[in-house]
Structure formats: structure tokens, C-alpha cells
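Below is one protein, fold included:
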Amino acid sequence: MEKILIIDDDVELTSLFQDYLVKEHFFVDIAYDGTSGLKAALSNKYDLVILDMMLPDMVGTEILVKLRLNSTLPVLMFTAKGDDLDRIIGLESGADDYVAKPCTPRELVARIRAILRRINQQAVSASTTQQTLNIGPLVLSSSNRKATWFEQDLKLTSTEFNLLEALAQQAGQVVNKNDLSEHALGRKLVRYDRSIDVHMSSIRQKLGQQKDGHSYIQTVRGKGYQLIKG
């Protein structure tokens, strides 16, 4: 039974989601503030965290930043419906994906299953292939999901690793955004969804620029992204 932690101070809503998730065969704990939620998230007891952006003692992004210092635990973020800024900031801070409030329990479960399915597939792939990709100064190891860049560790979130892996597997070629979404998030890309763009921006910052000032990851307008072979 996969274990879910919900960090949200809305007692009525979290109770509704907890009841539904239990019926869907998840184990669910709830933390109603950021301090106890962060402590629970760092306990290594959970498979996924659902995190609200607004909590009584700290904002969700503060929790994300602290969590990412020590953990790659998948985080599904609650954002206000239509609030693109919250989504962008949350994704930049280390969230894997988001779902907008108000959402139905069914939609929430679908997002959770997409993330967990993707993680399980990665675990199976890593245990069977033991693949290491070497693209110029980039080295990606699927067995331990580690990446180095010019022999320095790249601190990537799980989603960022997936995206960089998808680009590295087809280095020099354009990978369309829908394929990237399915590989990194476990779901098809939806209209106006900027998740892939935000994650890609974060990866670019971590890679830095080429000597000529251009990014190692190129945007091909209307098509997708391309990793430049170093």
C-alpha cells in the first residue's frame, strides 16, 4: 500500500481527500502545518507528498526548498485555480507536478497514479538496464539516478532527471514536449500547461551556458527541445 502525506490546513478538504484515497487503497497521513509536514516528509515513510502552497506557518515553496536539500521525494503541489505564478514558483522550487484547486478526488488520484507509475517504471528500468549515458561532459546513471556535469554532481529533482535523460537519449535531435511530459510526468501534455518549460528552465540554469553564451538545451519553437552535443 503506497503511503501519501497531505500537507494542508483545510480540515474539511483533506478529510474528503483522505477518505477517497483510502478507498483507492492508499495509506494517508495529514499534516495541518508546514513545520510538522516538513518533518514528516523527511522521515522517509512516504511515497509521495501533496503540498498546499499556503499554510499557517510557512509557504509551500519554503517547505519545498528545505525538503529538496535532503530528499527527492515526489511532490504534487496544490495551487489556486488559474494562478500561474504559484505554479511556476512551485515547480522552480522543486515540485514534480501540480493540480489546481478546486479539484475532484478522481483528478487528484489520476495525478498521483501518474507520478507513482512513472517512478515504478523508472525503478524497473534502472534495475534491468543499468544504463549509463555519456554525452560530452554529461554523465547520467539510470541505476542510481545520478547526473554529473563536467565531473560535478548535478542536483536534479526526479522530474528534472527524467527530462534530461529523455533529451540525452536523443542528443542532437528534437524531442517533442508531449513525449517529454509522458517520460517526465507520466501524463500527456495538456493545453496551456507550462510544467515542462519551467522544469527545463531550471535544468538550463544548472547546466549554465556554452562559451558562446547559448544554452546547452535549445528550444525549437513549435516542436520541442534539443540537447546540444558538447
Summary: The mean pLDDT is 88. DSSP finds eight helices and twelve strands in the chain.
